[in-house]
Structure formats: C-alpha cells, structure tokens
C-alpha cells in the first residue's frame, strides 16, 4: 500500500500529481472543493492561516460613513493590498473563474476576521436595541448598520469608544456631507415622446459603429452586464422580454424592480437590451445577460449605496462589465470608490464610467474618473460625440486638478440624438443626449470584445479598445473615438499571439 506524504513545501509538481491521483481514482470532487484544495496548497494550510493573505494585509484609517443618521457604514482598518494580489494572479496565471473565487474568499475571510473583533460592539448595540439591520460588505471590509435617528449619537459613541483599544491610533471618523441636491446622473436634454410612431431609431448610429455586423445577428451572448444606476423598469414593450430582471435596492434591502431616477436607468438599459421587435432598432445586445443595482436612489450619489451595489456584484457568479452612467457630484479628488473598483477588476469585472456633461464648465472633471485603477490600467471614462463623430460640446474633457496626469475621457462615441425607451408608459420613448448613453455603447463594444476572446486578460481587452480608437480632435485636448472593427481585429491578433506564447 503506497503512502503519499505531503510536505509543508508544496511545489507545482505535487499539485499536478494530486490532480492525476484524483482523476485516476475517479474521485468526483466539486469545482468549489477543487478550488479550496488549490488555495490550501498555495497557502500551505487553511485560508485563515494563509501567508499570501497575511502578506497582503495593510492598515488604513478606520472610516465611518453615515446616511441621514439612519445608517452607519463602518470600514474596518484592515484592507488587502490589491496590487500585491494582482501581481500574484499575474505571476501564477490563475484562470479567470478561479481568480474571482479566490479574491472573494480572501475578501470574505478578512471581513470575517474584522467582524470577529467587532462582535463585542455589535452585541452591545443589539443588547441595547440600538440597531436593526446588520449587513457585512466584504468588498471594502465593512459592516452596514441600520438604526433609528434618535439613537445615532449613542451608537456612534459606542462604536468609537469600544474600538479604541485595537484600532490604529491614526484612525479618523469621516462623516460624509448630506446627500447632494443635484443629480449625479449624466444625461442631458431629454425629450420625452409619447407617440413614437414618427421617431427615427438608432440603426444609423449602430451601422456607423459596425454593431450591426458584430453583435445584433448573434443568437445569444455569454456576457453579463450590470447597471449601477437608479433602478430600471422592464414594463416597457421593448424590455418586457427581460422578465424578472434581477435588481437589488441596497437602501431598503429589497429586490423589487423599480426605476427611481425618472427613466434614466431604463433608458440606458434600453440602448443595450431592447428587443427591437417593434419596427425600430433601439439596442445592440438584446441577447446578453443583465443585472441592475439601484445604487443612486432618486438619481443621487451616496458612497454607502454605491459600494453596497459593488459588493452585491461581487457576490454574483459572474459580472463582465459594470456600467456607471454617473459621477460624484463635485470635484474633490476623492478616491473613496477606488478600492472597491480595484476589487471588481480583480474579480474580472470592467467598470465603465461617464466622463460627464460639464464641457461648458470651467472645471469639467468629476470623481472617480480622476484616477487610474492601477498605474498601468486606466479607469475607463466615456465621452460623447455627435452622430458624425464630432466632439459634443457638453461632454467633459481635459486634465483634472488631482495632479496625477489623468486625462478624461479615455474614449468617446456617439451620445447624441439617440432613441431610448422611457417608463412613462409601455410604448413611450425619448430622444436623449449625454455621456450616460455613450457609456452604454462603449460597454456594448467591450462585451463584444469579451465574447471574441473570453479568456483574454482584461488588460488586453482594454488595450485593444483604447489603442485602436480614432483621433477626432487634438486641441485643446486629445479626443479618441471608438473604432470597434479595428479593436476586434487587433484583439484577435494579440490574443492569438498570447495563446502561442502560453503554449
């Protein structure tokens, strides 16, 4: 009888032998179990004692965000150094699906450890009946507490004092400003049309962008696109085929499908997912998979709800693209979303943002598009052009004031005179302008690139998109417009070369 002794130092050959033994013995191990075994081998023990996890920890100031004294979001002091995690994934050539699973396990384990330290405080708050809902958010290592406004000061004192012994001395308590009074959604000049019989459709724009050749003829698409917006409605005739589209509303912790932003989210979704069965071409990807998260209730930005949406996206089996047709209301060089956006990227989700409609303002940029995801990875911001690919005057462009050399937009495409569905009734439409809608078209282009090369690294997808765009203006700032056909051709070539190198 042979005995196999696994030493503490496990190399790649041992891992290979382990899988061969499993196959030869015809042992049926579920995918999740195999993933756990890989983690234990790489970590030389349980995930909770993983050197890789421990070596990637860093300390940050604890932050507390509040919303109308009804919610507290407590971000714990420990975080992952996501650049180190990214380096590990790149060096180990971890497959995409396993990369997402591994990142989720790391983030979840860290959050569980932090919650264990915080448990005495939670017990105290619960015992005094000061809080209701308790919701861990693993994506940024935090916990969301719901409470009565009358208990707010007392809860804050208990949270602050009870953490004094084990929270880093440099911690800060950050209370965000009251909810912005201006909308954060990036659309402009919406014209509601109740009778759409005489309206043009989007077929000319789609033809110019070559969507008609590369997307609409496909019977289905194995791509999942998520909208972080103000919710959507599928009651419109163009969207009724989506049926029970999954939507999460973090503010009320519900899954009711509703549009709270006066049709904005529904309009953006319709550019992607309309059935095109009512004598007009509205959308480019009716056969893709869609998710919705109401992270901007009533069209207004607050960090708590957006990061709760990102956490929800992380819990899904797969999200390829996260559409953010909005910006933070003010330019403050505020990178509060960057950590969660990096986590989404490492989970193989490409975030895409509006560049903004502040082209006629003195300061045109807004957060978070003033930042890069990583030094060599841009955060994609999308500007709007006219139908003939001329710069759209309202679209934001140019340098920002944050001193990091980021120029927005990353890429531009048609964002004017587009026809979208509006939830006023089941057959009402709007003609719209703005970067909210050009974002949807760039997201569709990214989806097509992913479909062309599902296992290609995200860096290669984004590089193919940006480097093959057309220069439409050089002064006062460089503006580049989407060239989907060239991007697809270059991705195929680069991905083939990459596959040959891997072999």
TrEMBL record:
Pfam hit, one: Peptidase_S8
Keywords: Hydrolase, Protease, Serine protease
SUPFAM superfamilies for this protein: Subtilisin-like (SSF52743)
Molecular function terms, GO-annotated: serine-type endopeptidase activity
Highest taxon of source: Bacteria
Annotated catalytic residues: 229 (charge relay system), 264 (charge relay system), 436 (charge relay system)
Peptidase S8/S53 domain ranges (all copies): 222-469
GO biological process per UniProt: proteolysis
Family from the record: Belongs to the peptidase S8 family.
Name of the protein in question: Peptidase S8/S53 domain-containing protein
